[in-house]
Design a protein that fits this description.
It is a single chain. By secondary structure, the chain is an alpha+beta fold. The protein has a single domain (about 5-120), classed as Nucleotidyltransferase, domain 5 (2-Layer Sandwich). It is about 40% helix and about 20% strand. The protein contains three helices and four strands, in the order αβββαβα. It has helices spanning about 5-20, 75-90, 105-120, and strands at about 30-35, 40-45, 50-55, 95-100. The chain has a four-stranded mixed beta sheet. Strand 2 and strand 3 (about 50-55) form a beta hairpin. Helix 2 runs parallel beside helix 3 (about 105-120).
């Protein structure tokens, strides 16, 4: 197995492990963070109905003027604040955090701190 396949397999294994322990409901949805090389995405998901309640990303139209580079810690914090504001507008105050198999460090941590500063509890 080459390095890239091993890395992807490890990430998939960590994602499955986290998803086995974390589940979202309509009252307390799952805040899922997805990180790519160029952007960061956040969704609030109700796993019982299989629907996305709120979403935000570094490619949202309202953030394009604020965020010049979607792959840095500053962009992640802005996305976290945006998803937090949208969640509060939708009547959601508490969530379960799903870091998606990534380390709680850097962009993932910054997004979580941004969501907390907007008023989400987790």
């Amino acid at each position: 197995m080459d390095k890239m396949k091993a890395k992807a397999a490890g990430l998939a294994r960590r994602q499955r492990r986290v998803r086995g322990k974390v589940s979202g409901t309509a009252e307390r949805p799952r805040l899922r963070v997805t990180r790519s090389n160029s952007n960061i995405y956040a969704q609030l998901i109700d796993d019982l109905s299989g629907t996305t309640l709120v979403a935000a990303s570094s490619i949202d139209a309202e953030l394009r003027s604020e965020v010049k580079n979607g792959s840095n810690v500053d962009a992640a914090k802005v996305v976290g604040e945006l998803v937090g504001r949208r969640a509060l507008d939708a009547g959601i105050k508490t969530v379960v955090f799903d870091r998606g198999g990534q380390l709680y460090h850097g962009r993932v941590k910054s997004l979580a701190e941004g969501a907390r500063s907007a008023g989400l509890e987790f």
